[in-house]
Write a structure and sequence with these properties.
- The protein is α+β, with helices and mostly antiparallel strands and about 300 residues long.
- It folds into 2 domains: about 1-170, no CATH class; about 180-309, no CATH class.
- The protein has 8 helices and 11 strands.
- The chain has a 7-stranded antiparallel sheet. Strands 10-9-8-11 form a 4-stranded mixed sheet, with no helix packed on it.
- The chain starts with a strand and ends with a helix.
């Protein structure tokens, strides 16, 4: 079973420069390939394959842009594979999946290292190609083989490493639910989760409690001159508050899902299939539905169940 472990890393100034170059190169290659795909489909109604784009990047783009050779080539190829997957997913299900968008330097930045990465728990470091012994807070140990490492940077400037590990855990086969060991969950806005055994988990409404502060900071950001140092400081303040809201929301959902899945009497969990996208079309409920994060609740519930196996 593949499992991911996310760690906070603290790169040195030299490593930060390397990360910035890699972020920029991967973003440039992704946008370059997406533009070629769009032009090819408009002119010939054809889709350019990942192999074609990879070969063209090696033969043409790297010759024109020599600075692309300063970063890990496998990370650049991973960006092309991610684009190819997103492009195919869109045409496979146009109604549910959006069309790939051009990447911006203002959004969350990331790059993938598919090989030659390791985690040293004794020294507390993570090593990737071209960057050795990155200081990290390795708060969780794992047993298995490191498959990939994804380095990311949040809009507020924090760095993280997501390590994908091939563990020895085996998936437990699905069994039919039994009445005396099954737990039903009803999701809502007023009460986040109402269980069939009588337990109720309130909705903390994290966004609502910080909305006034967020509106104030966003208003200050809009008044700053574009490209100025003060605008960048205001942008970071907004990003930090948004991360704080997201962290509070995720922490609450982790606690609820842990309480639901680590009950010794529960063997099966049943939950309704909500049309979240349809609920968000109601402008009176969209903000509350987004703050409740029903989709994240289901994801963390599945994660907690897998952690018990």
């Amino acid at each position: 079973m593949l499992r991911a472990y996310k760690y906070r890393i603290y790169p040195t100034d030299e490593q930060k420069v390397l990360f910035a170059k890699t972020f920029g190169c991967c973003r440039f290659v992704y946008n370059w390939a997406l533009n070629l795909k769009i032009e090819a489909y408009k002119s010939n109604k054809k889709s350019l394959s990942n192999i074609y784009l990879t070969n063209r990047m090696k033969s043409e783009l790297k010759q024109e842009k020599e600075w692309l050779s300063e970063v890990n080539s496998q990370s650049l190829q991973s960006s092309l594979r991610n684009l190819d997957t997103a492009y195919k997913n869109f045409f496979r299900d146009v109604k549910s999946v959006g069309f790939p968008r051009f990447k911006s330097r203002k959004d969350r930045q990331s790059f993938l290292c598919p090989q030659h990465s390791r985690v040293d728990f004794e020294r507390g470091t993570v090593t990737i190609p071209k960057a050795k012994d990155i200081p990290a807070v390795l708060h969780r140990r794992f047993k298995g083989t490191v498959k990939t490492v994804t380095v990311s940077m949040t809009p507020s400037g924090k760095y993280f490493a997501s390590v994908l590990v091939d563990t020895n855990l085996q998936e437990v086969p699905t069994v039919a639910p039994q009445d005396h060991t099954a737990l039903g969950i009803d999701l809502g806005i007023k009460s986040l989760a109402v269980c069939s055994d009588g337990r109720t988990f309130d909705n903390p409404k994290n966004l609502q409690h910080s909305l006034d502060r967020l509106v104030l900071l966003q208003k200050r950001l809009s008044r700053k001159q574009s490209g100025s140092a003060n605008r960048n400081k205001a942008r970071i303040r907004v990003a930090r508050l948004q991360e704080h809201i997201a962290n509070k929301r995720k922490d609450n959902l982790h606690k609820i899902t842990y309480a639901l899945t680590h009950d010794s009497q529960v063997r099966s969990i049943c939950m309704e299939d909500l049309n979240v996208k349809g609920m968000k079309r109601n402008h009176h409920l969209a903000q509350a539905v987004g703050d409740a994060s029903f989709g994240m609740f289901l994801t963390l519930l599945e994660y907690s169940v897998a952690g018990m196996e």
